[in-house]
Amino acid sequence: MGVSKRPVSIVNTMGKGRKPTPVAVKLLKGNPGKRPLKDVPQAKGELPECPLWFDDIARGEWERLAGDIPWVRGADASMFEVYCVAYSQWRRALKKQGEPGNGFVASTSAGSIKRHPLVAIAVEAANQMKAAAAELGLTPCARTRLGTPMAKSDSKFKKFVG
């Protein structure tokens, strides 16, 4: 047999596909696929106190969310830190961008116009926030996958319908 002359790529060019449904959600739905469920290790410990090195914005976000996410445990603390730091970077970039002299574009030394660096910082921080939030169950879609209960609301529509 000859050796294949096809180049080998270590980069996966296929899409990742759908994220697997968490076991907890499958159990809540009564295991509709009737396939054997995997044993999923549960994170242990409680979420630690807010890191001392956080700035005021990151600390505020940690304190705002820490009590509302009981499924985030001690083992998840580093991902929660990533989320809070990215949130702080995003907020600071947007605030700085709104100051006089800053905007969406900047002039180079050659006189051409390019995207302002603060825009790139804000976009990158938002992407990091989005990824960490999805991992932690902080987005509506992620909470649906986790099967976390929705907050009750006293909407005017609900009162009207009964």
Topology:
Blueprint: H1 23-28, H2 56-66, H3 77-97, E1 105-107, E2 113-115, H4 117-136, H5 140-146, H6 156-161
Antiparallel strand pairs: 1-2
Structural summary, described in words:
This protein has a domain at 44-145. Helices cover 44% and strands 4% of the residues. The chain has six helices and two strands. The protein has helices spanning 23-28, 56-66, 77-97, 117-136, 140-146, 156-161, and strands at 105-107, 113-115. A two-stranded antiparallel sheet has the order 1-2. It is extended, with a radius of gyration of 22 Å. The model has no long low-confidence stretch (mean pLDDT 79).
In short:
With 162 residues, the chain is mostly helical. The protein has helices spanning 23-28, 56-66, 77-97, 117-136, 140-146, 156-161, and strands at residues 105-107, 113-115.
Q: Choose one word for the global shape.
A: extended
Strand order of the largest sheet: 1-2
The termini sit apart by: 75 Å
Low-confidence stretches: none
Helix content: 40-55%
Structural category = mainly alpha
User: What amount of the residues lies in strands?
Assistant: under 5%
Question: Top keywords for this entry?
Answer:
mainly alpha; two-stranded antiparallel ribbon; 6 helices; 2 strands; 162 residues; 44% helix
